[in-house]
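Because discrete structure vocabularies remain unfamiliar, we first show an illustrative case, written as a sequence plus integers encoding its fold.
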Amino acid sequence: MEEIITFLANGLANGAIGHYVSKGLREIDSELPLLLQNETDVKKLHDIIRSKSVENEVKQLALDLNYSPTTSNHTENVINFSGGTNNGVIATNVEFKTSKKSIKVEAPLGSIASSLQHKNYIKYLIDRYHEFKKAEMGSGNMNYAIFYTSIKRKFGAKWDMVPLAKFDELTKFVQTRIDGTVLGRKRRSKGSKSYSSYDEYLQKHSY
């Protein structure tokens, strides 16, 4: 199932076929396209899909899009796609090679995604918020896409595409949302911390 999720997530990021994948996911569940675009933890995505009881529909969508993983040594993780008038190949790892060297596509300079430490800390806070909200709502009632949409609406960009210059502002935004959950309020009333500060996070993970 994880491989199917990777296939669909990569399809969403492909300009030629992303429309078909997004449309199919929306027909299954309106939250799925945004979730696959924003959540990088494939296992967590699988858990969300399972909690929504749409595993079979997601598998069927992949099959409808000609999901067919290959296993040869030279084409490992490569998935062929054809749909409508578009045809192509989706790979878990894509590397464009010239005769001299490989060309890597880097995250936009000056974005949170361009700094591993900043990106990982914001993702840690987002996951922390979802953890606290899940305790409040229950797994069956969770809508993971809502918070990602809130960040995009507030900052005008996907969470990891927010400029590094707004890192402190984004950090405060997510921390405030954590503190505003039922569990967050309870912990604050008892003087307990709900998350690590940026410096504490870096020390803990030995950056």
